[in-house]
Design brief:
- The structure holds two protein chains of two kinds.
- Chain A is about 20% helix and about 25% strand.
- Chain A is α+β, with helices and mostly antiparallel strands.
- The N and C termini of chain A lie far apart (about 70 Å).
- By secondary structure, chain B is α/β, with parallel strands linked by helices.
- In chain B, the strands form five sheets. Chain B has an eight-stranded mixed sheet with strand order 10-11-7-12-6-13-14-17, with helices on both faces.
- In chain B, helix 3 crosses helix 10 (about 325-350) and helix 5 (about 185-200) runs parallel beside helix 6 (about 220-225).
- The chains are: A alpha+beta, B alpha/beta.
- The interface of A and B includes residues 13, 17, 89 and 90 of A.
- Strand 1 (about 20) of chain A pairs parallel with strand 18 (about 355) of chain B.
Chain lengths: ~130, ~350
Amino acid sequence: MQRTTDHSHQHDSMPATPKKIKLAAGNDTLSIEWSDGHVSAYPYRYLRDKCPCATCSESGPSPHADPGPFPILGQKPLKPERAELVGRYALQIYWSDGHSAGIYSFTYLRESCPCAECTGKDSGEEAAPQVS
Amino acid sequence: MGNRLTPQDVLNALRAVKDPDLRRDIVSLGFVKDLEVSDSRVSFTIQLTTPACPVRDQLADQARQAVQALGVRNVEVRMTSQVMGGGRGKNELIPNVKNTVAVASGKGGVGKSTVAANLAVALQRAGASVGLMDTDVYGPSVPALMGGSAAPTVVDGKIEPPVEYGIKLISMAYFLPKDEAVIWRGPMLHKTIQQFLGDVRWGELDYLIMDLPPGTGDIQLSLSQTIPLTGAVIVSTPQDLALTVASKAIAMFQKLNVPILGIVENMSYHLCPQCGHREDIFGHGGAREAANKLGFPFLGEIPLDVNVRIQSDSGKPVALDEATTYGKAFQEIAGALAAQISVANFQGGQEISIE
């Protein structure tokens, strides 16, 4: 019986996967440290708006989460209460607004990285002066 | 006096012995244990990552020769094994199961269940602790393939799986009258998969082999989402049609980040029992070509033989007898699979932490 001896390229094509996921990396940021060394920082609101579940991607997430029966009490600040790995390929985030249907695949998360390098916003251009 | 052999000398010599699958030497892999060196005698243990290691004897010989080359006459090499698991992700449902392997195909009828059952038998016979889970809820066939009349029992609210040929088994067939059919939609299937994992007393297992239904549907998705699978084995017959559909199963697992451990070609060729003439009924070698093209390990081929069918139907998997062509084929495929599982665990065994 023969076996293929070189199949290393199979693993080269494996996409980057998270090494470390910090739910509260900053005040309102979730961060992911990837196997290739890249670090992504996602603001909560940005990530919540990116929810890939059928309901959210069909109609877009509600601009404001359900205020509940007592809107006078104000809204709980949006944050991930917890998160779980889904198999080997995704992250399920349980948001403080009660929504948890979104399964964020690692590929999707990486594609959604908002950093300048990933979005290509810094390509050769001088950074626009900050407006404060 | 100055030439006295030290343990370090022996280890240095053993660094020349490489595991061909992991492509590292057995010393840096930490395989060498219990090294004892005296004037005329050296003894040590090589602890492999699987009892089904296909190069077990080869490694033992190479290690012995490497030490003999130092001028030691009396070299004792003991071989043992400790199956590793991957660290990838949490596995709360089955914390004591080290490796989970999905046996899948694109098309039906290519012999997934037969391959799954025989791989389980071959791994068990090599000395591993093995479970076999029949996830084909609509067309369960594992109990028929594995024979026996034992049924699951319930102990303390959990299912105690029946054991045949030393393998723990679970299947929907155990819970249904013979002529009844399961007519369910997806959510029920998902629940069943979760129960087969979490509510069955699997105990400590080196390998849990999972026989999947054909295709890329609810069961495959549920399984890939519920546990971090160690990897998948793709079974195909050699003809183009089956291979084309098999590549869809491969695409699904890649999307779900489940490593493809290799491809098995079933019904590879037929040897006429009368005259010994070989007939490549479905063509031959197609799966090997596909594996090479896609860059996946080719694990081996199983001939189309009436005895495989007869023994499968009578609940005596052919892998129980390594003296036959097909029994030997399964033994070799199980070895190649076990080696690929070790490779996958070495390469992707990284824990993802959430804090």
